[in-house]
Amino acid sequence: MSVADKSRKKSGGLGETVSVIVQALLLALVIRTLLFQPFSIPSGSMRPTLLEGDYLFVTKWAYGYSRYSLPFSPPIFSGRIWGSEPERGDVVVFKFPPNPSLDYIKRVIGLPGDRIQVREGQLYINDAPVEREKVGEIDNPDITEMTRPVDVYRETLPNGISYETLDLSPNSVGDNTREFVVPEGHYFMMGDNRDNSTDSRFSVGFVPAENLVGRANIIFFSIAGGVSPLEIWKWPTEIRPTRFFTWVD
């Protein structure tokens, strides 16, 4: 084989490698943009449903697509295409309205036109109390972030969606609110950790439909204590295997 043939062979091999890498990157981009996006839970605002250190997949097609479905959120169009309404009770990743560079995750409580209020810790939708019953206490700091037992309540929304909430304090600032009237094209979000959640009761405000990124579906990995999943040597004591591949309710 001549030197020229060897050079062409090496060049062809390098070109094929680059082509495979580019195709893989494009495929990953399509999957992340149109199908699934991984998301990690950075705070305790959705405890006990989601814990800090949970890693989950967000379904991107659930509500259609907006510019926030794309990497870096380029303003190439407004609104949503192939859009559909979230259901009351969905756990949703969305862009923080005052600063869309930040991702938030909360539960959809109020739909357009709803009147939402909290009175003495009781959630009201359109002036009707949401079914709420105490189901016990949790005395596990990994779940509650507290060194004492915490009351747990089960809420059941009008459409039958049911989930647990934490009550860290009986008289917190979010236990009594004004009435919020959800504007058209917006949603009212709340965290399940009611006394430790920055949500639509506070600085989040009403969330525009355009800001929805996707619906949280399944936890695929979970690790405690703020440990990076790359710290494999800590897995034996810090991972939460019972949370692997569990659906988000």
From TrEMBL:
Enzyme Commission identifier(s): 3.4.21.89
GO molecular function: signal peptidase activity
Gene3D superfamilies: Umud Fragment, subunit A (2.10.109.10)
PROSITE patterns named among the record's database cross-references: SPASE_I_2, SPASE_I_3
Similarity section: Belongs to the peptidase S26 family.
Transmembrane segments: 20-39
Superkingdom of origin organism: Bacteria
Membrane topology: Single-pass type II membrane protein
Known catalytic reactions: Cleavage of hydrophobic, N-terminal signal or leader sequences from secreted and periplasmic proteins
Name the UniProt record assigns to this protein: Signal peptidase I
Key words of the record: Hydrolase, Membrane, Protease, Transmembrane, Transmembrane helix
The species this protein was found in: Chelativorans salis
Pfam family, one: Peptidase_S26
Main location: membrane
Domain Peptidase S26: 16-221
Subcellular location: Membrane
Family matches, as InterPro entries: LexA/Signal_pep-like_sf (IPR036286), Pept_S26A_signal_pept_1 (IPR000223), Pept_S26A_signal_pept_1_CS (IPR019758), Pept_S26A_signal_pept_1_Lys-AS (IPR019757), Peptidase_S26 (IPR019533)
